[in-house]
């Protein structure tokens, strides 16, 4: 898989559920370009076990993302109708009722494929039948996209491994600190800690153009 870092995020238009209760048929990340950062994350499937913990965790920190001018958007290979049904299911019953950020339907699996997170692939067998090698769901991919529509960070977890929402916030803070102060962020840097000056002229020129 080729990395998307430093490249424009793949474009798509798809159905999505927004505000927890409304289906829109022409959702696109392009609406945020020039205005907001985007944390775009994939999860394998609706009505599963690890996935609702992640979706609720993003909702619990949604205000923190919004304070930083970040739109949070989820995506899986389920239909918009499955998303809506899951959003109408109470948390105590394994649902994600209360989640308000957009959830995109990648029913065709084309978005997952464009972002390099599809866990399986399709190819013909010896009889000419198209079969899936692997699983036809998305890995737990997360992409931080800047206001210019460029991917600045990504992490992809295997299906059993839930993500850290706090780490997603930390990386947002690191990117915004660099953009504001021109300082680079060392290992384990957190907002409020000292960062580093990019004193080497070549490094400084490179960073200022990316």
UniProtKB/TrEMBL annotation:
Active site: 51 (cysteine sulfenic acid (-soh) intermediate)
GO BP annotation list: cell redox homeostasis; cellular response to stress; hydrogen peroxide catabolic process; response to oxidative stress
Gene Ontology molecular function, alphabetical: thioredoxin peroxidase activity
Record's subcellular location: Cytoplasm
Pfam families: 1-cysPrx_C, AhpC-TSA
Keywords: Cytoplasm, Disulfide bond, Oxidoreductase, Peroxidase, Redox-active center
Highest taxon of the lineage: Bacteria
GO cellular component terms, A-Z: cytosol
InterPro entries in alphabetical order: AhpC/TSA, Peroxiredoxin, Peroxiredoxin_AhpC-typ, Peroxiredoxin_C, Thioredoxin-like_sf, Thioredoxin_domain
Domain Thioredoxin, residue spans: 3-177
Primary location: cytoplasm
Coiled-coil stretches: none
Chain's role: Thiol-specific peroxidase that catalyzes the reduction of hydrogen peroxide and organic hydroperoxides to water and alcohols, respectively. Plays a role in cell protection against oxidative stress by detoxifying peroxides.
Classification via PANTHER family: THIOREDOXIN PEROXIDASE, THIOREDOXIN-DEPENDENT PEROXIDE REDUCTASE, MITOCHONDRIAL
Family: Belongs to the peroxiredoxin family. AhpC/Prx1 subfamily.
Protein name per its UniProtKB record: Thioredoxin peroxidase
Native source organism of the sequence: Bacteroides luti
